[in-house]
Design brief:
This protein is α+β, with helices and mostly antiparallel strands. The protein is 44% helix and 26% strand. It has one domain: Macrophage Migration Inhibitory Factor. The protein starts with a strand and ends with a helix.
Length: 70
C-alpha cells in the first residue's frame, strides 16, 4: 500500500494536482506493479512564507530571483 506525500508551495491549480496524482499513481503501477486502488497520494500545500530555501522564506527567495532577472 504505497503512500506518497507531495509538498508544494500554494498556487498549484486543481488540474495540476490531478495530473500529479495520476502521474505518481501510474509510475508506481508501472515501476513497482502496485495496485492503483491501494495507492494513496497526498498533496500538502504550504504558504510560501512558511517554506524556506537558501536561508530565506520562499516569498523572499522569489522576490530576489525576480529582481535579479530584471
Amino acid at each position: 500500500m504505497p503512500y506518497v506525500n507531495i509538498k508544494l508551495t500554494s498556487g498549484v491549480t486543481q488540474e495540476q494536482k490531478d495530473t500529479l496524482i495520476a502521474g505518481v499513481t501510474e509510475l508506481l503501477v508501472r515501476t513497482l506493479g502496485k495496485d492503483p486502488e491501494k495507492t494513496f497520494v497526498l498533496i500538502d500545500e504550504v504558504e510560501p512564507g512558511n517554506w524556506g530555501v537558501a536561508g530565506v522564506s520562499t516569498t523572499v527567495y522569489r522576490q530576489r530571483k525576480k529582481a535579479a532577472a530584471k
